């Protein structure tokens, strides 16, 4: 049964918010839990009935500084009063400052700004294709991606996303992609040699350092190091999708730091703007092959998004938030493992990095991740599934020790309810 159906079936106390008129006007691309959120502060949000929730979803790993953080409020206000949008036909100082910050704090040498994770991955796909045609002299470049990955909802990125459920009914897909199992180096080696035929050749590997939507599966260090070595030896470009795991969520600024390898290209979005829409594609200078007019975005890199994202980046650094991510992540995993020990038939594994963690439910028991999420909502805690059997914990990176403790108590009660 799909997550959509499971969410639809999960019943919670009805809310006076008029969901019928909402559903008549808004396309039903989401299965929504029937609460309407209207206010937030720190790691807490309130629904239209005034009920308070601890937010361990954070807009799905996006609200880096939580809700209404004073630095974010100040940055939004300052930037909207000063200048919010001009075209990339002119130099935009905030864009330059944000790009410099990213370059100083990563292995990147160049940055392109856009509006979302999918758009950042599209930019990376286009960059690879141009590099393949003009530098590698590949007529028909192939990009390898991993099974159970998630890279976005545009046509190229659903093709990159190696999960049939996201592709069904949207064929024909974009040519030039092939899939390998995650954390399996033999499969990559085989694909590179098998696809070296006629005009076809592997030009790049696009992969998440930790698979988020695919069930919170961390990359294997030995696998990623070997991947880097293969790419060095073959000239294949290594692209990391850091849209979910980047910007401090792993406890390091970038997920690749957890694996000890640097990509040639990587993408970011979600946490970069702390909830303000922004995406970015970073690369080393050797593969920066775009010329003026070859790729663009009207809103990409505007003063508003870049000014606010720069404040998010500087606040992360100034308030030493990465240390909090590491400490709170450990506290959360320890607490979840203690809960797992109480429900050994129901919880099979707790895994993750920093503040991106998953609690896997036993495939043989009836309870699903949406059941646990629904029970947690009843306990005043917002969580999000990552597949039908994994409950994901992605709170704001400023979450406190007391809030993690409160969330653990709510999970314990939710597990008691679903296993009763
Ligand atoms: C790893 C990864 N890549 C790309 C995306 C797509 O990002 P967006 O929804 O901003 O287009 C997501 C969204 O969940 C993601 O987790």
Summarize the structure.
The chain has 420 residues and is an alpha/beta fold.
Number of strands: 17
Flag low-confidence runs: 1-15
**Whole-number total of structural domains:** 2
Helix content class:
40-55%
Average pLDDT reading = 95
Strand content: 15-25%
Any ligands, ions or cofactors bound here, and which? pyridoxal-5'-phosphate
Main sheet overview: 7 strands, mixed
* CATH fold label of the largest domain: Aspartate Aminotransferase, domain 2
Question: Under the CATH scheme, which class of the largest domain?
Answer: Alpha Beta
Q: Can you put this structure into words, describing what you see?
A:
By secondary structure, the protein is an alpha/beta fold. The chain folds into two domains: 3-62 and 320-419, Aspartate Aminotransferase, domain 1; 72-318, Type I PLP-dependent aspartate aminotransferase-like (Major domain) (Aspartate Aminotransferase, domain 2, 3-Layer(aba) Sandwich), CATH 3.40.640. 40% of the residues lie in helices and 18% in strands. The chain contains 15 helices and 17 strands. It has helices at residues 3-9, 19-25, 58-61, 70-82, 93-104, 117-136, 155-160, 164-167, 185-194, 221-234, 256-259, 303-318, 321-342, 369-378, 401-419; strands at 37-41, 44-47, 52-55, 110-114, 140-146, 177-180, 200-207, 210-211, 217-218, 237-241, 265-268, 279-283, 347-353, 356-361, 381-382, 384-385, 390-393. Strands 4-12-11-10-7-5-6 form a seven-stranded mixed beta sheet, with helices on both faces. A four-stranded mixed beta sheet has the order 1-2-3-15. A four-stranded antiparallel beta sheet has the order 13-14-17-16, with helices on one face. Helix 4 (70-82) packs antiparallel against helix 12 (303-318) and helix 14 packs across helix 15 (401-419). Residues 1-15 have low confidence and may be disordered. Bound molecules: pyridoxal-5'-phosphate.
């Amino acid at each position: 049964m799909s997550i959509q159906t499971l969410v639809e079936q999960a019943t919670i106390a009805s809310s006076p918010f008029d969901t019928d008129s909402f559903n008549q006007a808004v396309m039903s691309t989401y299965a929504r839990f029937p609460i309407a959120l209207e206010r937030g502060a720190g790691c807490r949000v309130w629904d239209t009935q005034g009920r308070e929730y601890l937010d361990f979803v954070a807009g799905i790993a996006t609200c880096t500084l939580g809700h209404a953080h004073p630095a974010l409020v100040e940055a939004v206000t300052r930037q909207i009063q000063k200048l919010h949008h001009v075209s990339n036909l002119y130099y935009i100082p905030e864009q330059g400052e944000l790009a410099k910050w990213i370059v100083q704090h990563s292995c990147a040498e160049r940055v392109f700004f856009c509006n979302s994770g999918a758009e950042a991955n599209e930019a990376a796909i286009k960059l690879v294709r141009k590099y393949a045609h003009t530098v590698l002299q590949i007529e028909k470049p192939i990009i390898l991606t991993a099974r159970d990955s998630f890279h976005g909802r545009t046509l190229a990125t659903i093709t990159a996303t190696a999960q049939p459920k996201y592709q069904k009914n949207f064929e024909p897909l974009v040519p030039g992609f092939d899939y390998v199992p995650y954390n399996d180096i033999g499969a990559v080696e085989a694909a590179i040699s098998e696809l070296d035929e006629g005009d076809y050749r592997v030009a790049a590997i696009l992969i998440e350092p930790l698979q988020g939507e695919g069930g919170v599966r961390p990359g294997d260090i030995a696998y990623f190091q070997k991947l880097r070595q293969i790419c060095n030896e073959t000239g294949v470009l290594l692209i990391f999708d850091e849209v979910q795991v980047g910007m401090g969520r792993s406890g390091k600024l970038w997920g690749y730091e957890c694996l000890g390898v640097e990509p040639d290209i990587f993408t970011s979005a979600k946490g970069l703007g702390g909830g303000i829409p922004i995406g970015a594609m970073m690369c080393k200078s050797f593969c920066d092959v775009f010329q003026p007019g070859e790729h663009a975005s009207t809103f990409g890199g505007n003063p508003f998004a870049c000014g606010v994202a720069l404040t998010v980046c500087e606040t992360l650094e100034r308030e030493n938030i990465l240390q909090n991510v590491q400490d709170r992540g450990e506290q959360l995993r320890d607490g979840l493992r203690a809960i797992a020990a109480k429900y050994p038939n129901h919880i099979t594994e707790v895994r993750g990095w920093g503040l991106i963690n998953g609690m896997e439910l036993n495939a043989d028991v009836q309870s699903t991740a949406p059941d646990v999420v629904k029970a947690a909502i009843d306990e005043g805690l917002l969580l999000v599934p990552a597949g039908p059997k994994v409950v994901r914990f992605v709170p704001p990176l400023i979450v406190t020790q007391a809030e993690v403790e409160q969330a653990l108590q709510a999970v314990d009660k939710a597990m008691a309810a679903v296993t009763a």
